[in-house]
Design brief:
Helices cover about 40% and strands about 15% of the residues. With about 120 residues, it is an alpha/beta fold. Helix 1 links the parallel strand 2 and strand 3. About 25% of the residues are buried.
């Protein structure tokens, strides 16, 4: 069960007032998206998968389960960033922004799952 104050949204979608704090969680800035249009409040590059993991995964659905396992292992080393997202969500709505076209299998979905598990422990 994901934390109720955290939702996901593609960075290319129009910002809305109910997004709350908009946090970009990709390592690379979304291609072709201006900073003005993105309306990003925080850019947490360090919570994104490593370049090596990102390149290995390459949005291959067959690698999804292994990607989630490897990404979780990377997130285990980023306790402070994970806690900062959950802390923000305890006070206000948080929208995690991502640029992947696949809205089902991407780092934002994996991160939201990780945050839910982390918050329960």
């Amino acid at each position: 069960m994901p934390p109720t104050q955290i939702r996901l949204k593609r960075a290319y979608e129009t910002a809305s007032s109910d997004d709350g704090v908009r946090i970009l969680i990709d390592r690379l800035w979304p291609r072709g998206l201006s900073k003005d249009r993105a309306k990003v409040d925080r850019w947490l590059q360090d919570v994104a998968p490593s370049n090596e993991l990102r390149r290995w995964f390459d949005h291959d659905p067959m690698k999804w389960d292994e990607f989630r396992r490897r990404y979780s292992a990377e997130l285990n080393e980023k306790d402070g960033i994970v806690r900062s997202i959950l802390e923000e969500a305890s006070h206000s709505q948080v929208t995690l922004l991502f640029s992947a076209k696949d809205v089902i299998r991407n780092n934002a979905v994996a991160l939201l799952e990780y945050l839910a598990d982390f918050a329960q422990n």
